[in-house]
Amino acid sequence: MHGDVHVRHQLRVAREHGGEPVVAARLLDQVEGLTSDEDGRADAPRGTRGHHRSGPTRVINERLDSRRVHGRLISEKDHRGSHVRGQSSDTEAQRAAETILRPIVDDPQRSSRRAETRRDNRDDRRQARGTRDRDDAFEHRSAAYLGDLLHGPESGRGTRGQDDGRRIAMARLTRLHRSILNRGAPDAYHRRVNAHLDLLIEHGTVVDGTGSPGMHADVGVRDGRLELLAEGHQATAERRIDATGLVVAPGFIDLHSHSGLMIFADPLHEPKVRQGVTTEVIGVDGLSYAPIPERDDLEALVEMNAGLDGAPDGLAYDWSSVEQYMKRLDDLRPSLNLVVLVGNSALRIGTIGWDEETASAAKVADMRAMLREAMEQGAFGLSSGLDYPPGAYADTDELAALTDEAARLGGFYHTHVRYPLGDRYLDPFREAIEIGRRGNGPVHITHFYHRQTFPGGPEPMLALVDDARGEGMDVTFDTYPYEWASTRLLIMIPPWAQAGGPMPTKRRLSDTGARNRIRRELSERGVLFAGRRAWDDVRLGAFRSPDLLRWEGHTLGEVINERGQDPVDVLCDLLLAEDLRINQVTPGPWTETLADFIRHPVGMIGTDSTFVADRPSPRTYGSFPRVLGQFVRDEAILGLEEAVRSMTSAPAARLGLRDRGLVREGYAADLVLFDPQTVCSTATYEEPRSYPIGIEWVLVNGQLVVADGAHTGARPGGVLRRTG
Ligand SMILES: [Zn+2]
Q1: How far is the CA of 243 from the centre of ligand 1 (A)?
Q2: Can you give 246-285 as a three-state secondary structure string?
Q3: What is the pLDDT of residue 232?
Q4: pLDDT number for residue 624
Q5: Residue ranges with strand state E in 578-681
Q6: What residues contact 551, with CB distance under 8 A and at least 6 apart?
Q7: Is the peptide bond before 213 cis (omega within 30 degrees of 0)?
Q8: What is the spatial distance between Cα 699 and Cα 223, in angstroms, rounded to a whole number?
Q9: pLDDT the model gives residue 18
Q10: How far is the CA of 537 from the centre of ligand 1 (A)?
C-alpha cells in the first residue's frame, strides 16, 4: 500500500552513483516525506524561526545538515521500530538510506545539539504565539499532503472519494506532482560534460522547484532550453553569469493577473518581470476578453471592467475568438509568457447576453461548446468572478456544467467565489467546492484569504480545502501576500443594477428609485467590499476627467466630506462622470493570518496584480519578493525550497505545464536568480509603484529580461497553449 518503490529505486541509483552527499540529501528529502512527521519537513522550514536574520543560504545549509542529522534519526527510529509513519514494517528503504548516509552523517553530538536547538526554537515560538493547536493541525495536514505527493491521495488515509473515476480525475495535480518528484532523479545534475551554450550560469545555488534542498550546480541555456551540467564540466558559452551567492530557481508563475488588456499598452510588463515572474495567468475573475463573438459586446465588457483591467488607448478590439486574441498577444511579443483562461462572463455574453437570467439547458450547451472550442485553441480552463455581472448571474449548476466541460479537456475551474453568499464566510467557498464536486473537476480558489471582517478564523476556511481533498477532490488555491485588495469601484453596486451592460447600468445609476434601492442594500453589502472604516477605507484611482484627477489616490470618504452629500449619490455620480472606469484599493487579507495560507501545502501565489491607478495595491509590484524576503527569510514561516516550490512546480502542475516550473534538463529556460540575503519588496500602500530588491536576473524562454536588476528591454514571451 505504501508504495515506496520509487524511493527504493532511487536509493539503488544513488548507490550506483557512489552515494554523494547531494544525492543522499535529495534522497533524504524523499525518504523524509515517508518517514517523519515530527522531526522532518514540517519542522525544517520553520526551525530557524529564532534566527530572524539568518538568511536563506544559511537555511539551505542548515537544512542540508538537518537531513544528515535526520539520517541518524531514521536509523534510530528504525531500531526502536516505532514512530515511522506508514513504514514501520518495511525497513528496506531505511536500511538502504542508512547505508548510503553513513559516510555523511555528522558528528552525533553536533547533530543532537542541532536537533535540540531546533526543538527549543520551535517551543519558544509556540509559547510566544500560543498557537500550538494551529501548528499541530498544520503539521498533521502537511504530513498528509506529503503522503499525497509521494503516493497519491488514495494511500495512507483509508478509502476516500466516492468513485474511482472521480478519484482518478481529481488526483491529476498530485499525480503530476508525484511524477515531477520522481523525475527529480539523483543524476539530474550530472549529465553534460561538454557543451557549447548560449548562457552558462555558474556558482549559484540551484533550488530546483521540487522542494528539494538547494545544491551547488551550474546550469546552461541553449536554444531556450535548460541543460544541466556535471560537476567539473568543460562547457563553453557565449555568455556567463556568475551567480555566486544567488539562488537559481525556476521562473515564478503567477496564477492571477489583470494584464489581459494592459499588456498591450506596456509589453515590457516591468512590475511583473522585475519580481521574477516568467508566466502569468490572464482571463481571471470570469472576465476574459475572448471568446466574445460581437465587437460591441467586447467593447461593452472593456467599459464595464476598465476600473479593474484598464482600457488602453488606441487598442483595436478586432478579435473575437481565443485563437485571434492569442495571436494578438503573440504578435505583441510581451516580455513574459501568458496563460489564458476562459471567463464565464464571456461565455454568458456570447450566449445569453448581459441580463440576469437563469441559463436554459440549450444555453448551457451553447456555453459548453464555446468553452470547448476555446480550450481546443489553447485555453487552460474556466474562470469565474461571481461578483462581476453577467458571470455573477450563473448558478451553481451552470458553473458545474462548465467545470465538467473544462475537466473533460484536462482543464480546471479557477474561481473568485460569490462573496455575498450565505454566511459570507465559509458558504462562498463551499459553493466553489460543490461546483467541482458536481462538475467532476479540479477547483482552484483564487485570492483565498481571511478577511478581518470575517466572523471566524482561517482554520475553518483551510479545513474546507483539506476536507475536500480528503474526499479525493483536487482543490488548490492561491493567495496574494498583501493586506490590500483592489478591484473596480463598480463592485460596490449590486449585480441587479448592472444587468444589461454599461448603458442600462448608467441609467440606473442616475435614477433616484434605483439609487434608493442601492442605498438600502449597500448598508449591508458595503462592508464586504470596503473595510471597517467603510468609505474612508476606499482609495480611488484611475481617474481620467480633468476635474476629477485631483481625487487620484484619495479616499471616497474624502470626496463625500468635501461634497457634503449622501455617500451613495457621490458613488453613483463619480461612476457616471468616469464612465464606470474607477479603481478602488481597500483592506483585504488580514495580516495576522496571511501566513496560514502562504504556507499551506497547496497554497500558491496569485498576485491579482492590476495596472491602473497611480497607486495600485502594492501586490502588483511586490508579491513574490515579499514572500521570499519577509515570510521566508525574516519570519521563517516557510522554507525557501518550499516557497519556491509553491511559486513554480506547484502552479505548473495546477496548470498542466509540463516543461516549466522546474530546473530540469530540456525544460524551458525560465529562470530567476535572486539574492536570498537581500531579496525583499519595497512596495507599500503609500508607495506601491516601487520595484523589489534582490531579483538580479530573470530569463524567459532563454533570454534575459532582467540583467543586474534592470529590465533589458527583451520581449521573448508569448502565449502558452494547452496541449492534450
Ligand atoms: Zn482579480
Answers
A1: 35
A2: CEEEECEEECCECCCCHHHHCCCCHHHHCCCEEEEEECCC
A3: 87
A4: 98
A5: 583-587, 603-605, 671-674
A6: 540, 543, 558, 559, 574
A7: no
A8: 12
A9: 36
A10: 19
Q: How far is the CA of 117 from the centre of ligand 1 (A)?
A: 42
Verify that 602 and 492 share a domain, yes or no: no
Last residue of some domain: 130, 163, 180? 130
Instruction: Name the burial class of residue 622, with classes exposed (0-12), middle (13-18) and buried (19+) by CB atoms within 10 angstroms of its CB.
Output: buried
Whether residues 578 and 599 fall in one domain: no
Distance 280 CA to ligand 1 centre (A): 12
100 with 45, same domain: the answer is yes
For the cut 80, the answer to whether the pLDDT of residue 141 exceeds it is no
**Model pLDDT for residues 157-199, shown as the tens digit of each residue:** 333 333 343 333 334 444 445 454 444 444 445 566 778 999 9
Number of domains in the chain: 3
Same-domain check for residues 259 and 370: yes
Collect all residues with Cβ–Cβ distance below 8 Å to 67 and sequence separation of at least 6. Answer: 24, 25, 28, 29, 32, 213
Residue 194 confidence (pLDDT) = 77
Q: What is the pLDDT of residues 79-138, one digit of tens each?
A: 333 332 333 333 443 433 332 222 222 333 433 444 444 444 444 444 434 334 444 444
> 227: which 3 cell numbers?
541543460
* C-alpha 256 – ligand 1 centre gap (Å): 6
Q: ∠ CA(324), CA(326), CA(329), 5° rounding?
A: 115
Name the residue range of residue 50's domain.
5-130
Task: Please give the span between the terminal C-alpha atoms of the chain, in angstroms, as a whole number.
Answer: 30
Domain's final residue, options 656, 686, 708: 656
Provide, rounded to the nearest whole percent, the portion of the chain with pLDDT above 70: 72
Closest listed residue to residue 292, CA positions, set 368, 343, 362, 355: 343
DSSP, res 391:
G
In this structure, the answer to whether residues 464 and 580 fall within a common structural domain is no
Quick one: CA torsion of 374, 377, 381, 382, rounded to 10 degrees? -10
How far is ligand 1, taken at its centre, from the CA of residue 284, in Å?
Answer: 6
Report residue 576 as a C-alpha cell: 457616471
Which has the closest alpha carbon to 551: 582, 519, 509?
582
